[in-house]
Design goal:
- The chain is of the alpha+beta class and 206 residues long.
- The chain has two domains: 2-80 and 191-197, Glutaredoxin; 89-188, Up-down Bundle (Glutathione S-transferase Yfyf (Class Pi), Chain A, domain 2).
- 48% of the residues lie in helices and 9% in strands.
- It has helices at 12-21, 43-46, 66-76, 89-109, 119-140, 153-162, 176-186, 189-197; strands at 2-5, 26-31, 36-37, 54-56, 62-64.
- Strand 4 and strand 5 form a beta hairpin.
- Helix 1 packs parallel to helix 3 (66-76) and helix 1 packs across helix 8 (189-197).
- The radius of gyration is 17 Å and the shape is globular.
- It starts with a strand and ends in a 9-residue tail after the last helix.
- The mean pLDDT is 97.
Amino acid sequence: MKLYYAAGACSLSPHIVALEAGIPLQLEKVDNKAKRTAHDEDYWQINPKGYVPALVLDNGELLTEGPAIVQYLADLKPESGLAPANGTLGRYHVQEMLGYINSELHKTYSPLFSQTTPDEVKEERKAYLRKRYALLEQRLAKQPWLMGEQFTVADAYLFTVTNWARHVGFDLSEFPALQDFQKRVAERPQVKAALEAEGLIKKAAA
């Protein structure tokens, strides 16, 4: 399988999940602005949506949208515990959390990256993020991971999105449990491996 990604973008989430599950992936970097791949292919021809992530399956079929991709990967290795089994209430709670991160956090960050977004709009979006993070802060103050004691695909997604805070000047100091969560995720060996592979942190000396 091949994962089309951009360093540090939301595609980091399925990258982490694949490594956590022990699923080998071929990585292909995408220039988000030029919409060209590392092999100089037109990314629009690969994924008509134009954004990452995109996962090309072994049969050539294309799967897009991060929340769908991470669940697909988790289901390839159910023993990893990265997602509860289909049909269980636990699975629906994971989907609930993925939907929350996708709609309430991910999309709220988007205008903060644009230089054309007015300052007042950015401040309004940051206020909205604080409100949405407050709910997660309460949860993470009581348990290590979003779903309890088990690291899941939802944690990989939250970690990825929350990493953007430092790039857009969003202060997380009022969320100590969230900050501790970010540190816990960052210390996981497979997360470090994903960050190193994408050039987001330096590789540890041998």
